[in-house]
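ok trying this again, last paste got cut off
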Amino acid sequence: MKKKPGDAFRFVSWNVNGLRSILKKGFLEFLLRSEADVICVQETKAKPEQIPGGAIPDEWEIHWNSSQRPGYAGVATFMRKPVQVESFKGIGVAEHDNEGRVLRTEFPALTLVNAYIPNAQRDLSRLGYRCKEWSPAFLKFLWGLKKKKPVLLCGDMNVAHKEIDLARPRENVGNAGFTPEERACFEDVLGLGFLDAFRLWVSEGGHYTWWSYQNQSRQRNIGWRIDYFLLTPELRPYLLDAFHCPEILGSDHCPVVVDFAKEAVFQQGVV
């Protein structure tokens, strides 16, 4: 992982595929050496009371939004103390807020949204829900936020945006995560004015954030880029770096990182 610039504020997003599981696979070491100020995790598959006492170092405060269904979905945002912020669960629509998919955190100068977007499922059984029900409600939620303050959106979006964002695009056209409908939903988010942080820095292919556990996909780098940081344009001048950490193991996803100048996070009126 790259060293954080001394004047930067670091955000990390990581689908951990089970927080209790990854605690046994190096997550605490990652907390120590990531230099992160905020870590947004998705697919926690846990409630706060299921994490052993003392498992997380005291320097971290955790904000939770767990699924009502045990062992499923869920997001959590880790804040390195003494950052003092307020977090709010969901998007404010009851039928979409029972799976623990969104956690909004209000910083002085920006709104952070930690999101785990619904998966269409391999048989596309949830494609209709994901695109016709969830997406319009989520877009309305984002639109309301960006009218008030710059927004940084991160998480597992469960879609590869363009052909460059997966290793085998032709073989996957129409498959979950690369259907025209899901890609159009992602375009709708960009249509609100959001910018893809990683693509502001890296234009070539071969950079992925998720790999199947089958057929040595990770070792062969046969992956998908489905984890993102998206930012509203006001934040662009303060973005210092955006990168992936494929060398960090423990999940089928890898962490994605952005570094910002601190004034973009804390100094009201700068952006």
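PB: full thing came through this time. The radius of gyration is 17 Å.
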